[in-house]
Specification:
The complex is a heterodimer. Chain A is mostly helical. Chain A has helices at 8-69, 80-88, 145-150, 154-195, 210-239, 245-258, 273-287, 293-299, 309-338, 340-360, 364-393, 398-427, 429-450, 467-475, 477-508, 513-541, 544-559, 561-564, 571-604, 609-638, 640-673; strands spanning 94-101, 106-109, 120-129, 132-141. Among the domains of chain A are: 37-150, Beta-Lactamase, CATH 3.30.450; 463-674, MFS general substrate transporter like domains (Growth Hormone, Chain: A), CATH 1.20.1250. Chain A contains 21 helices and 4 strands. In chain A, strand 1 (94-101) and strand 2 form a beta hairpin. In chain A, helix 8 packs across helix 9 (309-338). The interface between A and B is large, with 97 and 83 residues.
Chain lengths: 674, 254
């Protein structure tokens, strides 16, 4: 079985080719529709703009009529220029107004600027006294005004393209895996058996496509031989006492090769790719509110007994993260009882209900309650997905499985945050939660059609987390160092700055949720682009502590950027830059923290190694829970920009401490060796 | 369903999602732009009435005493067919001058109450909107900057709604046409692009079914790989069949 089962290069080429094809079609379709829509808008709006220009001209005309009636000659209306220029300030679509005499000669104009040849002129308003026309007003309407105004949504259109690009990657990789890679992998495994002369399994899931037809043909051959063998076996059983030894040996050999096995071959069961689409949709649904959740909480604020304003509006995020942290280890046991498919489906129920009820929430208490329900759903679903991946991937493909999980989460973060922002801007917060609930339903649908039940849990048989494991981790100085000055600050910055303070900060300076979503999206884009290369670089260099320290330092510095640039022009761009830099920093330090964790866990060794890792993962979430609470409390005193700066300063200090201790330890280790 | 069709369905799904978002986004922008243009056109007229009225107020006349205002309002309503009504109210909400027919749900009293709230700037314009009409309420200020009344203009949104409907339908047509073209293109291109894979598997199927003879395989596609390996499998099947036949013969002899 050591044989390579699939021509991987060919399959990769196939996926990338299909992605390129889709992107080409996508770009053509979007460009075409955008162009035609623009033409349509211009055609409809231009006459309306000209009508408006006519109204402006008539208003100016009535003033001129009044002046003429007072006996001031047309040629003496020297105040026309400032008067008309002041009126035009409120009407950007009007380029220029000219006062012309009866021969068409321009006497006065609102400005000296030249008007492009393609501008349309409205010359319908005449001025004069007692019915005698003394001259006319000519108003020039800007030719590309509609196009210029539509440029305001240029960034949003680019976001749609970017989201579609990542969606194409996500969906087509899944589709190629589902329809080509996995069926070929299954066939290939059975083919490997066949090459050794064993035909005990059939290819599961005969589809009606070309691969499925081949699988059916292959199954027919296997079935034919198995049926022949079954008939032989029946005849042989009647003869058995008198059968010659060579015939018995032959029958035994044939039995080993042809007797059908009730259980399908492990390698031919469901694949990791099956869970990717429902998982992506689930994450997408939960991420749709990322860009506005704190703003939504603030808008619904009503005093709650015993809770300060800051704590109350941070609670929907903080409680959610707290519940996810404490429920996730418990959900592991449920995976063993229900199986991952059923648990995933069960998890989608509180998720969908929570999102739906959040859409209907009209006070903060309801929001907190339904976010808590969502947290239950999140814990159940993510554990179910991880359990499914663990079993479908087996030990040999566990890293690939985790990569699929992370990719689904980060890509959904990117798509959900940006699209959620746009939807909230246009439809409102409540409606965006309704969309999220609908996407959860779609996820459940994909789950039902894609995922097969895989029996008992991989996690059920795993090492269970005990309270003593937390003690092991907390008593170990190496774990203490990693948790307190690396993992918790990283998590704290993620939830405190990125997920809580950013929407509040940008909203406070007047940016729309659409812009907030686009700004937050930068973090996810950078994580997608830099995550794997940085992790590979860290593996190659092998100095994980250096990478973890550098990441913390960069994250701290990046977070100090908004406070130092508060009030500057294009502030959202600076925040986006800060987000991008935090993304680079996290790409540097998060995989390295993981690698250090594995090294430290190896020191623990034995059967508690995995439990120590789980305990660490629970403990690091203290940072996630504290992030929004700390950010909200600090913001009440210093405002959001300075709060982010202070969080950055804290992370920077942790980074310096981590680097210093790591260097001292490295030097201590080296001198001990010397 | 053919492999290329299955994959094309997902490709078209992504394109449909992006088209839907793009159409929605551009349409929303068009609606707001169109509303802005319409509103600003009528605001110019309302502000012109305001200038005239405030000129009178500055001269010490009350709004009631300005007889010429009624004529101005009537002329404007006659000239601009979209205007449903133009009215001037005093601070108590009493209707002083009216041209046109005031819509049933004009919202004037609640609008006046909102305009009089202390937190509003004295010169703020209030926009009223319902399913059939749009309205603008512009406060009239006396020489001391105090509110003395309001100019209210209601205009019919039927023409504007018809335009929006027309453009939305056009956009839907463009979107559907683009989707249809993308669908055809996706089917053709995927079919063409996957022909190596699908033909390979079709040949492999014929080979398994014994409808085609084995030939040397060159290429890097999945079916080629499987076909190369199927040659060994085929040999194994042959050997196995020989063994089965041998066993059958042996049993038959017994």
């Amino acid at each position: 079985m050591g044989q390579k089962v699939i021509e991987e290069r060919g399959l990769k080429r196939l996926s990338y080719g299909l992605i390129v094809l889709t992107l080409a079609l996508l770009t053509a379709a979007l460009s075409g529709v955008a162009y035609l829509s623009l033409q349509s808008f211009e055609r409809v709006l231009q006459p309306r703009l000209e009508a408006k220009a006519g109204v402006v001209a008539s208003v100016i005309g009535s003033e001129i009529d009044r002046a003429l009636a007072a006996g001031i000659p047309l040629e003496e209306l020297r105040g026309f220029q400032p008067f008309a220029a002041a009126i035009l300030e409120d009407h950007p679509e009007i380029l220029k107004i000219e006062l012309r005499d009866s021969s068409g000669q321009t006497l006065f104009a609102s400005s000296e600027q030249s008007v492009p040849a393609e501008a349309s002129w409205n010359e319908t308003v005449a001025v004069g006294t007692a019915g005698a026309e003394a001259g006319r007003l000519a108003v020039a309407v800007a030719p590309g005004y509609v196009t210029d105004r539509l440029r305001e949504i240029q960034a949003e259109i680019l976001v749609i393209l970017l989201v579609a690009l990542f969606l194409t990657f996500e969906v087509l990789l899944v589709v190629v895996a589902m329809f080509v890679t996995e069926p070929v992998r299954r066939l290939s495994h059975l083919m490997a058996d066949g090459e050794r002369g064993f035909f005990r399994h059939l290819v599961p899931g005969e589809t009606r496509d070309e691969i499925g037809r081949f699988a059916a043909a292959f199954n027919r051959v296997v079935r034919r031989e198995q049926e022949r063998f079954a008939a032989l076996e029946e005849a042989f059983s009647r003869l058995r006492p008198t059968a010659p030894p060579e015939l018995s040996a032959l029958m035994q050999d044939l039995g080993e090769r042809l007797r059908p096995e009730a259980r399908p071959a492990a390698a031919t069961e469901g694949s990791i790719a099956d869970v990717r689409m429902p998982l992506f949709l689930f994450f997408f649904a939960t991420e749709l509110s990322r860009s506005f959740l704190p703003i939504f909480a603030r808008d619904l604020y009503e005093p709650l007994p015993g809770l300060s304003y800051e704590l109350t509006i941070a609670l929907p995020i903080a409680l959610y993260l707290f519940l996810v942290a404490i429920l996730t280890p418990m959900a592991g046991a449920l995976a063993g009882r229900f199986g991952s498919r059923l648990l995933f489906l069960l998890g989608l129920v509180p998720t969908g209900v929570g999102l739906l009820m959040t859409a209907l929430a009209n006070d903060i208490a309801m929001l907190i309650l339904w976010r808590a329900v969502n947290a239950v759903g999140f814990a159940l679903t993510t554990i179910a997905a991880l359990d499914y991946i663990a079993r479908a991937a087996g030990r040999s493909r566990r890293a690939e499985g985790m990569a699929i999980y992370t990719a689904a989460f980060v890509t959904a973060g990117l798509c959900g945050t940006s699209i959620g922002g746009i939807l909230a801007d246009r439809l409102g917060y409540h409606a965006t939660f309704l969309v999220a609930a609908a996407v959860t339903l779609l996820s459940a649908f994909m789950l039902v059609i894609n995922l097969r039940d895989r029996g008992t849990s991989a996690m059920g048989g795993g090492v269970r987390l005990r309270l003593a494991d937390f003690g092991t981790v907390l008593a170990n100085p190496r774990f203490q160092l990693l948790i307190l000055i690396a993992a918790i600050p990283t998590q704290l910055l993620t939830t405190g700055y990125l997920f809580y303070a950013t929407p509040m900060l940008l909203d406070s300076v007047g940016y729309s949720t659409s812009v907030i979503g686009q700004t937050m999206m930068v973090y996810f884009v950078v994580m997608i682009l830099m995550g794997v290369p940085m992790a590979r670089l860290a593996d190659r260099v092998g100095r994980y502590r250096l990478f973890a320290g550098a990441g913390l330092l960069l994250a701290g510095l990046a977070a100090m950027l908004p406070s130092s640039l508060e009030g500057s022009a294009h502030f959202a761009l600076w925040v986006a830059l800060s987000m991008g830099l935090v993304g680079v920093a996290h790409a540097l330090c998060i995989p390295s923290q993981g690698a250090i964790l594995l090294q430290e866990a190896d020191r623990v060794g034995g059967d508690r190694r995995t439990a120590a890792i789980s305990a660490y993962r629970v403990l690091e979430r203290i940072g996630s829970v504290l992030g929004p609470i700390l950010a909200a409390s600090l913001a009440a005193l210093y405002g959001y920009a300075w709060t982010i700066g202070l969080l950055g300063l804290y992370v920077l200090a942790c980074g310096l401490l981590f680097t210093a201790i790591s260097l001292l330890r490295a030097r201590g280790g080296a001198s001990a060796v010397n | 369903m053919r492999l290329s069709v299955k994959i094309a369905v997902y490709m078209v799904g992504i394109i449909a999602f992006a088209l839907l978002l793009l159409t929605y986004l551009t349409n929303a922008k068009f609606r707001s732009l169109q509303e802005e243009v319409e509103q600003s056109r009528f605001l110019v007229l309302a502000l012109d009435v305001k200038t005239t009225a405030e000129r009178g107020l500055a001269l010490g006349l009350t709004l009631e005493q300005m007889d010429n205002l009624g004529g101005i309002l009537h002329r404007l309503v006659e000239t601009h067919g979209d205007i449903l009504s133009l009215v001037i109210l005093d601070q108590q909400g009493e209707l002083l001058h009216l041209a046109g027919a005031l819509p049933d749900d004009s919202g004037l009293s609640s609008g006046l109450e909102r305009l009089q709230r202390p937190e509003r700037g004295g010169d703020d314009t209030l926009v009223l909107s319902n399913s059939r009409s749009f309205g603008l309420m512009v406060p009239l200020l006396n020489a001391f900057g105090q509110q003395a009344g309001v100019v209210a203009l209601h205009y019919d949104r039927a023409a504007s709604s018809a335009l929006v409907r027309q453009v939305t339908l056009e956009q839907l047509r463009f979107g559907l046409a683009a989707l249809l073209l993308s669908c055809v293109a996706a089917l053709l291109l995927t079919g063409w692009y996957l022909r190596g894979v699908t033909q390979g598997f079709a040949r492999l199927t014929r080979l398994v079914e014994g409808r085609e003879r084995q030939a040397p395989v060159v290429g890097g596609l999945p079916a080629d790989d499987l076909e190369r390996r199927f040659q060994v499998v085929h040999q194994q099947v042959g050997e196995l069949e020989a063994k089965v036949e041998k066993a059958e013969n042996a049993l038959a002899r017994r």
